[in-house]
Amino acid sequence: MRIGVPKEIKNRENRVGLTPEGVARLTGQGHAVVIEAGAGKGSGFDDAAYTAAGAELVDQAAAWGVDLVVKIKEPLEAEYAFLRGQTVFTYFHLAGVTPSLTAALLDSRTTAIAYETVEDAAGRLPLLAPMSAVAGTMAVPMGTYYLARFNGGRGLLPGRILGESFGQVLIVGDGVVGRHAAAAALGLGAHVTIAGRHPERAATLRAELGEALQFIESTPANLARALTGTDLLVGAVLLRGARAPHVVSRDMVAAMPAGAVLVDVSIDQGGCIETARATSHSDPVYTECEVIHYCVTNMPGAYPRTSTLALTRATGAYVERLAAHGLDALREDPGFARGLNTLDGHLTCAAVAEALGLEARYRAFDPA
């Protein structure tokens, strides 16, 4: 199979879909790999490393003109013209991004396989987890930075100073993002609360993260009460493939202390905070209701070396299976098949279809 790796063009996105090591494995299996010149530079992989691994350096159009495109982020409008019915394997987040991308995929009859909806045998999300872990870990230091007075924040540093803990951190969601954010905040020594939907998980979370962790059930009343004293809010709500629900309302945000900060990690799926709207690394924050909002849709792109290595270790085996077997790789693995979002001009993911008000053709691809 002929596999292409375009250079990412999203704002300050420096991750890359394949490392030289991954290229070497594919070329060693007899596949042809083309990579856009400079695609790996931001992650610390120069062109010479790719050519040494057997890849051919090409321009943007040639990197898309293949059987299988391996990317990091969803195609942007400037790339829609390159969608010509090939298979694209990347993060799509179709429920949270502009509907024009879904239309472009359907019109071009592109086969879209989304990292974020692939499942393993246990029903987990193995290709979403690495970047969720990175985003959760970085949410706390990013939020802490914007709490600084010179950034317009309330001037409170979450952490332990001479044995005394400062700062209230509330994390809404107890999945991979939430647990990593809690670990980062607890490591600083702040007061940390996780709001989750399953109170029975509280003991497990404390065993994993530390007895200092507080847990509340995620109800509107509990969130409203907790947010009045919250310095840093982290939104970490996930509905698989679907648009994130607004569990934190505008009124709740308005009740937070002036100069508090929120980081909505769910923003790539539309955001779980009503006042959140997508931002970029070049323009990461805005203030609404006197609260600083950090809502960057590609947070892990800030740390491309770590992110690329963590992600490609998870995606590599799936890329190799697609290269070797094409769509038969999905027929052999129902969890992998759940990554399929579009095929032959039809939506195949029910959660995406519901979010966009469209119809899903569930049996357009029916894994054995």
Molecular structure report:
The protein is α/β, with parallel strands linked by helices. The chain folds into two domains: 179 residues, Rossmann fold, CATH 3.40.50; 167 residues, 3-Layer(aba) Sandwich (Rossmann fold), CATH 3.40.50. It contains 13 helices and 17 strands. The strands form three sheets. The protein has an eight-stranded mixed β-sheet, with helices on both faces. Helix 2 links the parallel strand 2 and strand 3. Helix 5 runs parallel beside helix 6. The protein is globular.
Name the helicity range: 25-40%
Query: pLDDT under 50 segments (min length 5)?
Result: none
The radius of gyration is 21 Å
Task: Identify the CATH homologous superfamily of the largest domain.
Answer: NAD(P)-binding Rossmann-like Domain
Q: Tell me about the biggest sheet? A: 8 strands, mixed
Structural class: alpha/beta
Which term fits the overall shape? globular
How many DSSP helices?
13
Question: How is this structure best summarized?
Answer:
This protein has 13 helices and 17 strands.
What's the arrangement of secondary structure elements?
Layout: E1 2-5, H1 20-28, E2 32-36, H2 47-52, E3 56-58, H3 60-64, E4 68-70, E5 87-90, H4 99-107, E6 111-114, H5 129-146, E7 159-161, E8 164-166, E9 168-172, H6 176-188, E10 191-196, H7 202-209, E11 214-217, H8 220-227, E12 232-235, H9 250-254, E13 261-264, E14 285-288, E15 291-294, H10 304-325, H11 328-331, H12 334-337, E16 340-343, E17 346-347, H13 350-356
Parallel strand pairs: 1-2, 1-4, 2-3, 4-5, 5-6, 9-10, 9-12, 10-11, 12-13, 13-15
Antiparallel strand pairs: 6-16, 7-8, 14-15, 16-17
